[in-house]
Structure formats: structure tokens, C-alpha cells
Design a protein that fits this description.
Shape: elongated
Order of helices and strands: HHHHHH
Low-confidence stretches: none
Helix content: over 70%
Distance between the termini: 62 Å
Mean pLDDT: 90
Number of strands: 0
Oligomer: single chain
Radius of gyration: 22 Å
Structural class: mainly alpha
């Protein structure tokens, strides 16, 4: 059976566990929050994994890193909603504290993934003349022309 690249990411697997926990946690929220906080927290939690998945479809490491950044932001948004839910007594402080280590783990994994993507982007930029800044290319061309003039 075919497996997509994002399914192999450890961070994606952790995000799936987290999102499942969010859905279980929010099923008992008050009915008047169904289209408000319940929906918002579920959508932001789902967005964490969705952005990781979408990012893996991008060819550019820079674009992949951008989607990892969005994923991290969605994780922070979700945690904000969890804090709000605790303040409103929709979840117990203990439930929030039980999720903190998983949020911390996921945030570290997303950051590590993003740093890796940025590192691969930067190393490719250094070696691929088509990706270098125009000023840099101009300086290389200028020095190459000067070398050729000196040889003649």
C-alpha cells in the first residue's frame, strides 16, 4: 500500500494523536459552543497536521518550511483555545496539564523539521547558481570576466 511522505513523519504521527485527543476532549463542551469554541479548537488542531501534509507536497524547501511555520502557528492557536476552555471550566486544569507535554513535544518536532528544511534550502542556494541572489550572480560574473580579461 502506498504511503504519503507526511505519513512517515514522526511529528505528523504525534499530531494525529494530539488531534484525536482534542476531538475527544471537546465532545463534552457545552452545546452553545458547538459552532464557536468547539469548532474553532477542532479546526486549528486539524490545521496542524493538514499544513504538515500540504508542505510535503511542495518542491521548494523554503515553501515546505513556510508550511511547517504555519503548522506551528496552528499548534499555538490550539493551545490558546485550550487555555480559554480551561478558564471557562470546559476542561479541567488537569486535562490541560496532561496535554502540555504533547504540545511541547510537537512544537519541538515542528521546529526541528523547519530548521532542517531551511538548512536544506540554504545549502541548495549556495550550490545552485539559479537560486542565488542577483547581486551575488553579478559579482561572480564580474570576477569571472575580469579573470578572463587578465588571461588574454
Amino acid at each position: 500500500m502506498f504511503t504519503y511522505a507526511f505519513e512517515k513523519l514522526e511529528v505528523y504521527k504525534s499530531v494525529c494523536k494530539f488531534t484525536d485527543e482534542i476531538y475527544k476532549l471537546t465532545k463534552d463542551f457545552p452545546s452553545h459552543e458547538r459552532f464557536a469554541l468547539t469548532s474553532q479548537i477542532r479546526r486549528s488542531a486539524s490545521s496542524v497536521g493538514a499544513n504538515l501534509a500540504e508542505g510535503t507536497t511542495r518542491i521548494s524547501m523554503k515553501e515546505q518550511a513556510r508550511f511547517s511555520e504555519i503548522s506551528f502557528s496552528s499548534l499555538a492557536e490550539t493551545f490558546h483555545h485550550l487555555l480559554q476552555a480551561a478558564r471557562l471550566d470546559y476542561i479541567k486544569q488537569e486535562q490541560l496539564n496532561n496535554l502540555r507535554p504533547l504540545v511541547f513535544e510537537i512544537s519541538n518536532k515542528i521546529n526541528a523539521l523547519r530548521k532542517s528544511q531551511i538548512g536544506r534550502h540554504n545549502s541548495k542556494v549556495k550550490t545552485d547558481p539559479h537560486l542565488q541572489e542577483p547581486e551575488m550572480l553579478y559579482e561572480k560574473l564580474k570576477s569571472s570576466l575580469l579573470e578572463n580579461d587578465l588571461k588574454d
